[in-house]
Design goal:
Layout lengths: L2 H16 L19 E7 L2 E11 L2 E10 L2 E13 L2 E8 L10 E7 L2 E5 L8 E8 L2 E10 L2 E11 L2
Antiparallel strand pairs: 1-2, 1-10, 2-3, 3-4, 4-5, 5-6, 6-7, 7-8, 8-9, 9-10
Length: 161
């Protein structure tokens, strides 16, 4: 066999097969988080808490959360899940807190449909975690120190219909 002909041809074929055409669709940086998209509800003794998420662009998931009060829907927080540079941030604006200014939590882990966002400089929470249990259920957890004591709050959400 003529290795001087076969080897370069094989290398060329491998190189060409690994190239994407410029028209090939690029996966969204937030693709692994799109399971959040939709409506979610958590029922408790105090009432129903909701989160609604939508894909605003390939670098932004936009969300809102709040609660249902009798017949009214009260939005208490707007959330952005955004890619900036090489990082992804969870950025809530909670009405009545932090002078209604955004607070950024950096994505520190994204494995097995568990998203972990952290901001050690924030008072509470310092950590926000979303865990998909099934395609129609997830747990949202906020944790950190509250008045000097470790605190953890869990919310078991079901996908809304």
């Amino acid at each position: 066999m003529k290795y001087d002909i076969i080897f370069p041809a094989l290398l060329s074929a491998l190189a060409l097969s690994s190239c994407q055409s410029p028209d090939a669709p690029q996966e969204s940086p937030l693709a692994a988080m799109q399971w959040l998209i939709g409506s979610w509800k958590f029922s408790s003794e105090e009432g129903v808490i909701f989160e609604n998420w939508r894909l605003a662009s390939d670098t932004l998931l936009s969300g809102e959360s709040g609660y249902l009060s009798e017949q009214d829907t009260v939005v208490s927080e707007h959330i952005s899940l955004v890619k900036r540079g090489g990082d992804i941030f969870y950025i809530p604006i909670v009405y009545g807190q932090n002078e209604d200014k955004p607070t950024s939590f950096k994505l520190t882990s994204n494995k097995n449909n568990v998203l972990v966002f952290e901001n050690p400089q924030h008072d509470f929470p310092t950590k926000i975690t979303y865990s998909m249990i099934t395609p129609d259920s997830m747990v949202a957890e906020i944790s950190g120190l509250l008045e000097g004591h470790p605190e953890r709050m869990l919310y078991l959400f079901a996908r809304g219909k």
